[in-house]
Design a protein that fits this description.
- Helix content is 37%, strand content 17%.
- The protein is of the alpha/beta class.
- Helix 1 links the parallel strand 1 and strand 2.
- Helix 2 packs antiparallel against helix 9.
- It is globular and about 45 Å long.
- The protein starts with a strand and ends in an 11-residue tail after the last helix.
- Bound molecules: adenosine-5'-triphosphate (ATP).
- The site of adenosine-5'-triphosphate (ATP) has 18 residues, from helix 1, strand 6, helix 5 and helix 8.
Length: 194
């Protein structure tokens, strides 16, 4: 079974890795594929870093874990990207588990062709501060698996803001990501408007 963890990964951080690892271990997955989003419709109008930066950072984040990989297909697609289109590129015989944070899981039933997404995948959810289990269970029309990890209050938004305001973020992201953000001068300006 393959786990799929989609996201903007702007930047990828430790909560992404912890959720992927929890799913891998708890559900006995064969591998977890990180899927950086192209132009996610949920984030239309927000500025996100260039796909090549997000791809490079995601590669750095998973480096050294042989059961984690990155798929850049959504970055190569034109226009808005929808998860179902990506799931349809996986051969039907391969079982899939979608890995989501509780905030993202709450919105699942608003996704493009979400019934088909739910038919195709099991759903594994990582707890997130401020989101109750019951909120997710009320909003997702299938049974979900809760991942065994503590709620981690790390987010891309907070990291971007930290960089923009010169506050520490090392160790909230994998080392390679920390180096990449610093050496490419990412987020110095942008995080400030968020
Ligand atoms: P941003 O703050 O930029 O919106 P983010 O850190 O929430 O970003 P994304 O890359 O958009 O991260 O999220 C990818 C997936 O990881 C989503 O399913 C999201 O819910 C989940 N996720 C992100 N951060 C956490 C966290 N701290 N705990 C649990 N799940 C998380």
């Amino acid at each position: 079974v393959r786990g799929i963890l989609g996201g903007t990964f702007d930047p990828p951080h430790l909560a992404h890795l912890a959720a992927a690892e929890a799913a891998y271990r708890q559900l006995g997955l064969g591998e977890v594929t990180f899927l950086p989003a192209g132009t996610p419709w949920q984030k239309a109008g927000e500025s996100i870093s260039a796909g090549e930066h997000r791809m490079a950072m995601t590669e750095l984040a998973v480096a050294g874990v042989d059961y984690f990989g990155v798929d850049d297909q959504e970055l190569r697609r034109e226009g808005f990207t929808y998860t179902i289109d990506t799931l349809e590129t996986v051969p039907p015989g391969e079982e899939l588990t979608l890995i989501l944070g509780a905030d993202a899981a709450k919105g699942l039933a608003t996704w493009h062709r979400y019934e088909e997404v739910l038919e195709r995948c099991l759903v594994a959810v990582a707890p997130r501060l401020g989101v109750e289990r019951t909120e997710v269970e009320d909003l997702v029309p299938v049974e979900v698996v809760w991942l065994d990890l503590p709620p981690l209050a790390v987010s891309g938004t907070d990291i971007r803001l930290r960089v923009a305001t010169g506050r520490p973020f090392r160790f909230l992201v994998p080392d390679g990501v920390w180096r990449y953000v610093s050496s490419h001068d990412l987020y110095r300006e942008r995080g400030r408007d968020e």
